[in-house]
Write a structure and sequence with these properties.
Layout lengths: L7 H45 L17 H11 E8 L4 E3 L8 H9 L5 E9 L2 E11 L4 E8 L5 E8 L13 H4 L8 E2 L2 E2 L3 E3 L14 E3 L5 H17 L1 H7 L3
Parallel strand pairs: 9-10
Antiparallel strand pairs: 1-2, 1-3, 3-4, 4-5, 5-6, 7-8
Helix pairs in contact: 1-2
């Protein structure tokens, strides 16, 4: 008996079958690809931390951001990152070799709710110099922004890495451009004895960023809210870690 494909019931049944088949296929692919997705996320975090330390493949020009390749990053991460620390809600510091996998967003949410939390921090060494790398998480114009800032014992920035989820291309999205991130190197997060962070300032009187003790970098054109978000993220993050930083800060 021929099937009447013009009936509404046929359309409904066919659509239901296709939803089940396609949904099952997508679920299978997601499950099969999950290990690779997790591995890529792991490598990307390692690349970001190393980038903030200045371990990357950038050229001498102020061009594109070039990470350590994924097939080399794990070895480089192990070589340069000497300790991975976790600071709990009581200020207790312990070592954890997978601290870089901690989801900072979740930890900050737990802290906000008054629940136990863990803050990761990384101690690296490069050219016989120590780096203290702090992860950061904040809010831009449209969605989340995040990154890492590497400090030395004088609380001088040695490098940063910023990223975003949905900032405007050509405007706020430029926080991850090298010319913007490079401006932070050499700036101090201290104003006297206060952890003031670094402002992203419109009308900054130092557009070439030669003054390194003003706690400011030049703003991105047309990206005031995103820039303010970066500044707030840095200030909140260094304040969050200040008890630990005070134990290593050269005064």
């Amino acid at each position: 008996m021929a099937i009447n494909t013009d009936k509404n019931s046929y359309t409904v049944i066919f659509a239901a079958i296709m939803v089940v088949v396609v949904g099952s296929l997508l679920a299978f692919l997601a499950s099969a690809l999950l290990p690779n997705i997790k591995e890529n996320e792991r490598f990307f975090k390692q690349q970001n931390i190393l980038y903030a330390m200045g371990v990357n493949e950038n050229g001498d020009d102020a061009g594109s951001v070039n990470f350590i390749p994924t097939d080399q990053v794990e070895g480089e991460f192990t070589s340069y990152v000497k300790k991975q620390l976790v600071i709990d809600e009581n200020g207790k510091v312990s070592e954890n070799n997978e601290a870089y996998l901690i989801d900072l967003k979740k930890q900050l949410a737990a802290k906000k709710k008054g629940k136990p939390y863990q803050l990761p921090l990384f101690i690296g060494e490069k050219d016989k110099k120590k780096f203290y790398v702090i992860p950061m998480y904040g809010k831009g114009l449209w969605d989340a922004i995040w990154g890492f800032v590497a400090l030395d014992e004088t609380m001088t920035v040695q490098g940063v890495y910023f990223d975003h989820r949905g900032e405007t291309p050509g405007l706020g999205a430029n926080i991850k451009m090298r010319y913007f991130m490079d401006d932070f190197t050499g700036e101090t997060i201290m104003k006297g004895s206060q952890y003031s962070g670094i402002a992203v300032a419109k009308g900054n009187n130092d557009p070439l960023n030669k003054i390194k003790d003003d706690n400011e970098v030049d703003a991105l054109a047309g990206a005031t809210i995103t820039g303010n978000g970066v500044a707030a993220m840095i200030k909140e993050s260094v304040t969050l870690y200040k008890d630990y930083l005070e134990t290593i800060r050269v005064k």
